[in-house]
Design goal:
By secondary structure, this protein is an all-alpha fold. It contains 10 helices and no strands.
């Protein structure tokens, strides 16, 4: 079993709780308060900018040309995701030019960028993989129930897509290829998952 799969399996009890998180159930049912989603889109835009930078930093650290290319490709995927957020912003009048990051957003972004600047590539991948794999998991699990037709359907379509799953898999492969200190990798991976929960919790307070 690969390290990325082992980390995913070890955290299953925690991961499964996300499917019952009110933010996620509200997305699927279509009854999530719009202010919560608008807040989430703004905060996620701020966070994804840090995510793209972390990919670029990791690319600069690798000496392997194929991995350099993959990291930049993953950064391009983030830019596409940001374009999706821009579409939400236009439709729902969300101000993405003057985002005030919430404490949960700052903690997650600061952790990610500190890891990117200070740690080796395996640690960077461990800090980023939970976000990618978790969103792919949530999108796919919701899609299994049938994609509904409401204001949040596009969110489910995006994260249940084969393209997004491939991006998550590419990052997991990079994690597997750069593992050094497994104990530290495990701690980084779990903390990133915890930050994801904190991120969703914060969105629910924005009613």
């Amino acid at each position: 079993m690969t390290v990325s799969k082992d980390l995913w399996n070890k955290n299953q009890d925690f991961i499964k709780t996300f499917l019952e998180h009110p933010f996620i159930t509200g997305i699927y049912q279509g009854n999530l308060d719009r202010n919560c989603f608008k807040f989430y889109i703004a905060q996620d835009t701020f966070f994804l900018q840090s995510f793209a930078r972390a990919y670029s930093i990791a690319a600069a650290k690798t000496k392997r040309l194929p991995d350099f290319t993959i990291f930049h490709s993953l950064a391009d995927d983030v830019l596409k995701e940001l374009n999706l957020h821009q579409n939400y912003a236009k439709q729902w009048a969300i101000d993405l030019e003057n985002i005030k990051p919430a404490p949960a957003t700052c903690r997650y972004s600061d952790f990610l960028l500190a890891t990117a600047w200070e740690k080796e590539i395996g640690q960077i991948a461990a800090a980023m993989t939970p976000c990618m794999r978790l969103y792919a998991f949530l999108g796919q699990e919701l899609a299994k129930l049938g994609i509904p037709n409401h204001q949040y359907s596009e969110w489910i379509v995006t994260y249940s897509s084969c393209e997004f799953d491939r991006s998550a898999e590419n990052l997991e492969n990079l994690l597997d290829n750069y593992v050094e200190d497994l104990n530290s990798i495990e701690q980084t991976y779990y903390y990133a998952l915890f930050c994801e929960k904190d991120f969703f919790d914060a969105a629910l307070l924005a009613k």
